[in-house]
## 1
Amino acid sequence: MKHLPNILSISRIFLAILLLFVALHYDVILPDFVDKSWVNYLTCLIFCVASLTDFFDGYIAREYRVHSRFGEVFDPLADKMLILSAFIALLILDRASPWAVFLILSREFFITGLRVIIAGSGASVAASASGKYKTGAQIAAIGFLLADFFPGGEVLLWVAVALTLYSGADYTIKYVKSINV
């Protein structure tokens, strides 16, 4: 049980690579007699399974108090790789606004950089509920856009953008307050 969260994080990295590979090369993977729309369900399934590993690695680590330096580094890295591969796939499949993807990924890189600064300074800024909502909104939007069966996927994406930018601002404000104390 001790290594299971790390194994799940590593599996998420491989699933992120698989997701992008399927989106890029579905014409080679799927036989000719299979309708090409099945790539939607396959990429969505891969993404959903990978998203579940994110939930379970955190749950197991908290429940059994198994924390490691490896997990602290690779869990968020695996999360970013999954989101990045999903958004690249959506851009390739022409299902997501490049502006929405740019805003979300910019926030993710900015906050990752800020976390590095925080870790170096010895300060601590706890995760907030807005970050959890942001993640949920991103997962829902990506899932619906990959499956391509819900016409409101683009609306969900822009809701995710709003929550992403809000949580980034929230995290930044908390950091600024922590260094001014």
## 2
Amino acid sequence: MSPSTVTILKSPPMKGGDDEYSYTKNSTFQKETISIAKEIIDEEIAHKLDIKGLLSATSSSSFRIADLGCSVGPNTFIAMENVIEAVKHKYQSQGLTSQIPEFQVFFNDQDSNDFNTLLRSLPHKSPYFAAGVAGSFHARLFPKSSLHFIHASHALHWLSQVPNEVVDKNSAAWNKGRIFYTTAPEEVRKAYAAQFAKDVEMFLDARAKELVAGGMLVLIIGSFRNGISPSRTLASVLFDILESTLLDMAKEGLISEAQVDSFNLPIYFTSPDEMEHIIEKNGCFKIERTELFNPESVVKATLSGQACTMHFRAGFEGMLGNHFGSEIIDELFYRHSKKAEEFSSRLQASSNEGNQLFLALKRK
């Protein structure tokens, strides 16, 4: 195991396997985001990655890549092949075709991730050597200066834990009757923001040790435009639907109000300004590029009640089952689907506000 003194409170991973409710079958949005980011990654590797310097900085002759928060679906394979294709093209464009290295890819997620499904579905004749690495990306995962490129998509918005204050009845940030922070009092938002800043600092410190000097870290994170309220985003409306569904079930006695009061999502969405401030304060990385984009076509395609619910179930079934009991899951998501249809106008109105933030960072 990697050395670490950090205590991480784990959240259940995305739903494994390949059945109708699995992340494998319900991650179209993430796939589209990776597809859009491909062109940006190509440009950053072409113009900013010093391939000669990177390999000379390690004793290894292979180019090592890690995908953090890889989950189980095919999206991680697409992302890794995009990176490798761009690195190969960089060698070829510099007349170094004969020096193209071998590639090694590390697929990382927490130890409860369905690595069996992930590794069984590896593409045949993949252009790299593959390994699974279990552990939280909020702590160290790899030896010092052992990686050349790190990728993390739709992962860093997951917190290492729910902020302690929001579940403390004696705290001004106690989030009674809510499961998220976007429509909560300011004290709740501040508690979430502080936890996010702490987690990103841990994440960046760990990656700074693992990357060689000049190595690249690419992040794709749920975000929103500077200056708008996060309550206007699509994610906030989706969580409002889940919260409303849980409160209805509590009123009917299917779950308890105490269970709702003690349940909070360990997720935080940042703005570009907030994220850049955290990175600059950390000081280990140079920001090469930031860009907001919105995969609007696929967002709108997933806004029907059923599609929205399937996407949500793939991501949150484990967490909700652990807290409220697995026996209520089918009923919960049946109600969620119906309520999503009722909220359709709000979902459509918010679909332009939710964005993905692309960041390309280089290790100083």
